[in-house]
């Protein structure tokens, strides 16, 4: 086979369309992956709608990729043809710049950008990736089930473990959706007293079945007051897509509490007096690097954490994308790639 198929965004705001391409040869430090599954993430809208300057079109979106390595470019070490590999938002790192040398590879000064944004991603039968972006994927994990762990999973898992909260602390997962339904599972398994916060009571039973110990209906009253009544949160993992909703819960932080912002909502206003009285913080969190991906996958396997998915074939990528953007999917959308 010398051709591949990809669902490409022809221009900003355009509809995804199928394109046949020659199979690409991996360049230096790159591998070619035969894609088995790719999750459809809200951040794909960056590429589909052209929300970032400098994206070159046509572009293949997709940054929750699991597949098998099919070919190695020059100077790839530590990977073999036939190995299972995962690729997330993290597009790779150089290993020699100041940030890389300080263990901050996500901010690499040499390799910029993101999978499916500045380089082609996984809405395709094949893709190229830098070896430094690859995560080892345990053989026992099903690619379709596990693909969302490489963005929704790593982002919540990694934000939680870097929030400063320790086992037993009160941690709120704000929003029980694509990110939050994984966040609840990770928080409970990481040993936190886990509070799920969402509008209405529809998702309460599900949140509790995923491990939430408490549930707050953010429409029924002031969610910040409700958290304070529980003692104040050591961490709030803010997964929602509304700045107003984030602002409304920030006051629920306790002493030394941190709100980890992982939903992109634009400008956010918080009460500085409230923050300084509590030594509290609002912090953004980058999803994570390749080794964080591996930690996420292994932790999920050990603790039987899984994403709930709606599955579409590659040819239905436009419908899959629209379903994800509707906010109605339960909870992640995944493309199954057959050949
Ligand atoms: Zn994503
Ligand atoms: Zn670097």
Descriptive notes:
- The structure is a single chain.
- The protein contains eleven helices and 15 strands.
- With 339 residues, it is α/β, with parallel strands linked by helices.
- The strands form three sheets. Strands 3, 4, 5, 6, 7, 14 and 15 form a seven-stranded mixed β-sheet that branches. A six-stranded parallel β-sheet has the order 10-9-8-11-12-13, with helices on both faces. It has a two-stranded antiparallel sheet with strand order 1-2.
- Helix 4 (152-161) crosses helix 5.
- The protein is globular, with a radius of gyration of 20 Å.
- One zinc ion (ZN) binds next to helix 2.
Describe the biggest sheet? 7 strands, mixed
Determine the mean pLDDT: 96
Per DSSP E runs of 2 or more residues, the count of β-strands stands at 15
Strand content: 25-35%
Bound molecules: zinc ion
Q: Which structural class do the helices and strands define?
A: alpha/beta
Q: For the record, give the distance between the C-alpha atoms at the N and C termini, rounded to a whole number.
A: 10 Å
| Helix residue percentage | 10-25%
Uncertain segments: none
Query: How many helices does DSSP assign?
Result: 11
CA-based shape: globular
Q: What Rg do the Cα atoms give? A: 20 Å
Order of helices and strands: EEEHEEHEEHHEHEHEHEHEHEHEHE
């Amino acid at each position: 086979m010398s051709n591949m198929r990809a669902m490409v965004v022809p221009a900003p705001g355009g509809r995804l369309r199928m394109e046949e391409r020659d199979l690409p040869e991996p360049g230096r430090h790159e591998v070619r992956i035969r894609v088995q599954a790719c999750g459809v993430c809200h951040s794909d809208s960056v590429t589909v709608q052209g929300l970032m300057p400098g994206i070159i079109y046509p572009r293949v979106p997709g940054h929750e990729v699991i597949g098998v390595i099919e070919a190695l470019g020059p100077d790839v070490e530590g990977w073999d043809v036939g190995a299972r590999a995962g690729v997330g938002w993290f597009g790779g790192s150089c290993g020699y710049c100041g940030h890389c040398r300080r263990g901050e590879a996500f901010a690499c000064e040499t390799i910029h950008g993101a999978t499916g944004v500045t380089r082609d991603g996984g809405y395709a039968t094949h893709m190229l990736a830098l070896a430094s972006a690859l995560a080892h994927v345990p053989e026992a994990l099903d690619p379709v089930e596990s693909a969302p762990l490489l963005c929704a999973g790593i982002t919540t898992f990694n934000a939680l473990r870097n929030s400063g909260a320790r086992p037993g602390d009160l941690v709120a997962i704000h929003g029980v959706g694509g990110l939050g339904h994984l966040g609840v599972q990770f928080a409970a398994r990481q040993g936190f007293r886990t509070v799920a916060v969402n509008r209405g009571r529809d998702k309460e039973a599900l949140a509790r079945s995923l491990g939430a110990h408490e549930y707050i209906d953010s429409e029924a009253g002031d969610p910040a007051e409700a958290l304070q009544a529980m003692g104040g949160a050591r961490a709030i993992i803010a997964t929602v897509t509304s700045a107003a909703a984030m602002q409304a819960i920030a006051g629920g932080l306790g002493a030394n509490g941190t709100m980890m912002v992982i939903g992109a909502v634009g400008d956010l206003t918080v009460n500085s007096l409230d923050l300084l009285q509590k030594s509290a913080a609002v912090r953004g969190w980058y999803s994570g690097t390749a080794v964080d991906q591996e930690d996420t996958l292994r932790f999920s396997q050990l603790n039987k954490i899984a994403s709930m998915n709606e599955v579409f074939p590659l040819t239905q990528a436009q419908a899959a994308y629209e379903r994800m953007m509707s906010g109605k999917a339960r909870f992640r959308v995944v493309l199954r790639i057959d050949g």
